Amino acid sequence: MSVDVKRLGVCINGKPIVRDIDLHISDGERVGLIGSSGSGKSMISKALLGLLPTNAQVSGSAMVGGIQVVEASEPVLASLRGRYVGTVFQNPASSLNPVLSVGKQIELPLKLHYDLDKVDRQARVARMLEKVGLDATIAKKYPSELSGGQQQRVGIATALITSPRLIIADEPTTALDSITQRRIVDLLVELVDKAGASMLFITHDFSVLSCATTRCYVLECGQIADSGQTAALLADPQANSTRKLVDAAHELTLQRK
Amino acid sequence: MRFIVRRFLLFVAALFVISVVIFAALRILPGDAPSVMAGLNAPPERVAMLRSQMGLDRPLAVQYSSWIDGLLHGDFGISLLTGRPIGSMVAARCSVTFPLIVLGLIVAIAIGLTFGVMAVLTTRPALRSGFHLLGLIGGAIPALWGGLLLILLFGRGTGLLGVLPSQGFPETGWDSFRTAFASLVLPALTVGVISGASLMRYTRSALGDIMHSGYIDQAMACGYTRRAAALKVGLRLTMPQLVSVVGLMFASMITGVMVVENLFALPGIGTGLVTDLGNRDLIAVQSELFMLAAFFLFIGFLVDLLHRFLDPRLRYAVQERA
Amino acid sequence: MMMRNDSHNRAEEYQTGTDLSDMRQGAVSSVERSANQPSKRAAKDRENVALGRGFAVVLRLIWKRGEGKFALTVMTSWVAISLISLFWTPQSLWKTDGYQVWAKPSATQWLGTDGIGADVFSWLMAGARTDLFIAVASVIFAGILGVLLISIMVSRNSALSNGSVVAVDALISIPTILIALILAVPMGASVMVVVLACGIGYGLNLARVARPEALLAANSDYVGSALSYGASGFSVMLHHILPNVMPTVMVQLSLSAGTAVLAESGLTYLGIGVPSGVPSWGHSLATSVKLIDVYPLSALWPGLIVTIVAVALNIFGDVLRDTTDPSSNPELRRS
């Protein structure tokens, strides 16, 4: 599913957070959105999903799979979310419903969008758990009983259970340690590619971006500062903000390898 | 399971402590109960007579153990004034007060949850401030005054609309169900609306906080609308907190209940306690206070259990520590 | 679940080293202070100045908001009227006139007279001071009890802290009115019954509400480092833990003040609060209720006043909560 964002702007209580965002994702493409914290990355993903707080005003245009999400009504957006667009959030510990067992959690999008019987749904959940590398017995457990890596696998399973055409991953690895980070990114890329879905991968870490995406946009102070092939940007950063982020990535991880 | 046992032991310990406090308050605290009870300028003989009648001339330990012994056997003592067993007196009063509390709670929860959720979900600023104002003012009305306003509006005889009874309770009690129920409507509305306004403020702030959390984003990302996410996920997540609040509300509501019982002349616990206190019926007051305290401690026990049950994270957190 | 994990925020505050000593003082600065004995007095003075300035800043922030203006105006008038009533009321409180009962409002009796012919307006004025005393005294009592309980709850003696936590958890379900009733049996109806009952009830409540924040502070790294510098438990409590719970304590106490005024009216009506003959709003309300059938409007004023004052104190608490949260208030940091 393709995404086409033109001159998107988000204000919260009249204060602009992001403006003039132009962003394109083709079918089956993995695109990154990178920026330091506070640059407004999450606002863009929330705008695409219709998850902005009620005091936010959105301007411009954002087409997700041929639907204009900026002016779409809540039911239209809800029918898009979980069915055609799957989302993986930053911190599974504070986003997975703590009072729902893992199985019910993953089952939820199926329940909301498809008319399947219980046996069928549970079979799909079991297959999904296997795909993300989790044991089937985990379905009965609650999120608080799992490790951070396991929780994020549950998050990925929930996002992918309906085979959505677009995955939005909003800093999916930030809450994890570096080894788990790598495994989660690899898993996500593998599953997205296998399904032929598109992905918008949001992060502040170039080292993660390099394995997750082919092309990326650099966001600074709510505006797109740079864009291009991820590998090219990483090898030869031009814009100031890009260089800062690349330097940081080198300092922290890449150099040590 | 261990938690239940531990919490129950705490409940029993608290019961013991409160029984000692009540017992001591009537005997040891500054101020001599018999002379307060006999009234100002009472002859010393009357005070002495009252003292021996109440058994206050016996050693404290003997007094206390005989009282507790009676309580354990379901014997709450004999009223000094009427000579009737206190147990049956209290039972009769409970048949008025309990339905009143339950009705009040139903009104409070209905108002609190409905308006609280609406206040969170509405996007219209005017409606938002309207709910805000409603919560502020509703919770700040003295029960006495609120009851009065309702009498003036709806009370039979005095009220503008004059549709509901505003004084008394049928002699025949719940046998005449319609009259009995009707006489509880205004009192229950009074305490219900006041507590409901506070509950609404809690609901609004707790649910409002949850609505900004990742849990709601995740639920919406699965395909819920904001409204459905608030109702199906948000409310469930605020439940443990709201149960605690409702538990505390119980305790704060009882002041209002006692006031409206007196205002609407309902023969309940509150009216009874005030009468017994006025009649200086120490033994009755002592047992009644203890029963009230036991009731509220038990509610506290239940609320804590429910709270634990509603939040799986708490269950596991405790297991990990143990 | 709702416990905000703001330890991170706080750590940031301390690092930025802004002069936060007004409300929550920085751990770093006070560690330096205790290491630097000679300048202790100067530091103390600085701290007092900063505290006063912080207070002024908070008041200004509250005044800036529409609701805050209302709350502060009501509270100031309350204090002013209480003070005036000590020296002057339009009519003497004890001037009664058997021929002038339930009189209509007039030039001399602004709100009419009550059942024994006393001036309603004067009694309401005088009632202000009793209610002010009750609110202030019970809040002070609750504050002391609450802070004491919090200190025990976060103390390093685990038997003591666990014991106090369960005790508070169990006792919190005892309603204020029950405490008042227990106290009223030996003491009779008196202002002190209201003050003590409210103080105990709200003190317990305060301890329960502020405990999570106190624990968060007690388990924090800066407390650990202060202890490793050899600071005593008492000084850690005073310098590191209390400043962190102070905003919550202030908010809770101002909400409690409103509840105390409401409780006074209820307890007085039930005959276990302010004794007859002592002016109070609850007393005015209770006397007017008796003849509600005949003179319905007489109950309007005391009820209205109690409601307005309780609303003002609630608003004050709410606004205080918003303004003392430094993460949402850059102005408090800069000052």
Automatic annotation (TrEMBL), chain A:
Membrane topology, as annotated: Peripheral membrane protein
Protein name: ABC-type dipeptide/oligopeptide/nickel transport system, ATPase component
Chain ranges of the ABC transporter domain: 3-246
Gene Ontology cellular-component terms listed: plasma membrane
Signal peptide bounds: none
Keywords carried by this UniProt record: ATP-binding, Cell inner membrane, Cell membrane, Membrane, Nucleotide-binding, Translocase, Transport
Molecular-function GO term, any one: ATP hydrolysis activity
Protein's UniProt keywords contain Membrane: yes
From TrEMBL, chain B:
Membrane topology value: Multi-pass membrane protein
Cellular compartment(s): Cell membrane
Domain ABC transmembrane type-1: 94-307
Listed InterPro entries: BPD_transp_1_N, MetI-like, MetI-like_sf
GO biological process: one example: transmembrane transport
Top-level taxon of the source organism: Bacteria
Pfam families: BPD_transp_1 (PF00528), BPD_transp_1_N (PF19300)
The UniProt record lists the keyword Acetylation: no
CC per GO annotation: plasma membrane
PROSITE patterns xrefs: ABC_TM1
Record field: transmembrane: 98-121, 133-155, 180-202, 242-269, 289-306
Chief subcellular location: membrane
Keywords noted in UniProt: Cell membrane, Membrane, Transmembrane, Transmembrane helix, Transport
Family stated for the protein in its record: Belongs to the binding-protein-dependent transport system permease family.
PANTHER family xref list: DIPEPTIDE TRANSPORT SYSTEM PERMEASE PROTEIN DPPB-RELATED
Protein name (record): Peptide/nickel transport system permease protein
Species whose genome carries this gene: Bifidobacterium commune
Automatic annotation (TrEMBL), chain C:
Bilayer topology term: Multi-pass membrane protein
Biased composition (Basic and acidic residues): 1-13
Bias (Polar residues): 27-39
Disordered as annotated region, ranges: 1-45
This protein's UniProt keywords: Cell membrane, Membrane, Transmembrane, Transmembrane helix, Transport
Top-rank taxon, per record: Bacteria
Transmembrane parts of this sequence: 70-88, 132-154, 166-185, 191-210, 222-242, 299-320
A Pfam entry, by short name: BPD_transp_1
Principal place of residence: membrane
Entry GO terms, CC: plasma membrane
Gene Ontology biological-process entries: transmembrane transport
Location(s), subcellular: Cell membrane
Cross-referenced SUPFAM superfamilies: MetI-like
Domain ABC transmembrane type-1 residue range list: 128-317
PANTHER family: D,D-DIPEPTIDE TRANSPORT SYSTEM PERMEASE PROTEIN DDPC-RELATED, OLIGOPEPTIDE TRANSPORT SYSTEM PERMEASE PROTEIN APPC
Family: Belongs to the binding-protein-dependent transport system permease family.
This protein's name: Peptide/nickel transport system permease protein
